[in-house]
Amino acid sequence: MGVKYMTKTILELDNVTIRFGGLTAVDSVDMKIEEGTIRALIGPNGAGKSTIFNLITGIYAPTAGEIRFMGNKINGLKPHVITKMGIARTFQNIRLFGEMTVLDNVKIGMHCRTCTGFLGALVRSPRVKAEERAITEASMEALKLMELDHKADELAMNLPYGEQRRLEIARALASRPKLILLDEPAAGMNPQEKQTLMSMIRKIQAMGLTIFLVEHDMKFVMSLSDRIAVLDYGRKIAAGSPAEVQRNPAVIAAYLGKEVV
Ligand SMILES: Nc1ncnc2c1ncn2[C@@H]1O[C@H](COP(=O)(O)OP(=O)(O)OP(=O)(O)O)[C@@H](O)[C@H]1O
């Protein structure tokens, strides 16, 4: 008897459009991401990649269309609600607190998610203490995944660049997301740092997470992604496996004839 593999859509963009004044930054984009896969979004500068991340995470609301996460419409919801539902992200530029420890940088991402208010934190009731412990545990777990647990007490600014970027991923992972959006995770890394990052992203995938990344490094994208979507001037011009996308004439033209390797 054969085993049946069911694929489940975790994120769906249905005809999503956003206009800023006269500019259509994202134009009628459809996308379906299967649970447990690595999806990349590529395209020239200004194509609308970060805007798509901002739409998914609730920073912008689409002018038209719908975004569904695990079958539920999420456009129109507040960013913290979307995070709570299981979507986490990192940003294009590093957003760490250099003078804080590695562990605190992860914990601070989680405090936004907990129910303790300012007063509760001052009083430190048993409930608050239990919550604090849970936050520390989840944060250490995330650091371990990114192989930074042995640096928990160091100041963030003392980490090498590649580790600072991994720390940002750890912060996103601490909220135990089902889907993680990585905005140019390999930017500025040397080849060794990229290799390490790639194996860590694969490890996260093996745990059952879905990864959606924007990345300019083609070698990185091509060797890591299950499927790739290509944006140009806000429109999705191609989608498919890395091999399919690489030989797609529209993709090659969008990159001005530059070979996509
Ligand atoms: N809040 C905004 N107001 C007005 N225009 C915006 C806004 N956000 C993005 N844009 C415009 O939308 C277009 C898409 O920008 P976006 O940052 O999504 O591109 P990108 O593909 O991520 O580019 P890059 O690879 O350079 O990061 C650009 O023309 C940008 O100037």
UniProtKB/TrEMBL annotation:
GO terms for cellular component: plasma membrane. Residues 11-258 form the ABC transporter domain. It comes from the Bacteria. Keywords: ATP-binding, Nucleotide-binding, Transport. GO terms for molecular function: ATP binding; ATP hydrolysis activity; L-isoleucine transmembrane transporter activity; L-phenylalanine transmembrane transporter activity; L-valine transmembrane transporter activity. InterPro entries: AAA+_ATPase, ABC_AA/LPS_Transport, ABC_transporter-like_ATP-bd, BCA_ABC_TP_C, P-loop_NTPase. One of its GO terms (biological process) is L-isoleucine import across plasma membrane. It holds the Pfam family ABC_tran. This is Amino acid/amide ABC transporter ATP-binding protein 1, HAAT family (TC 3.A.1.4.-).
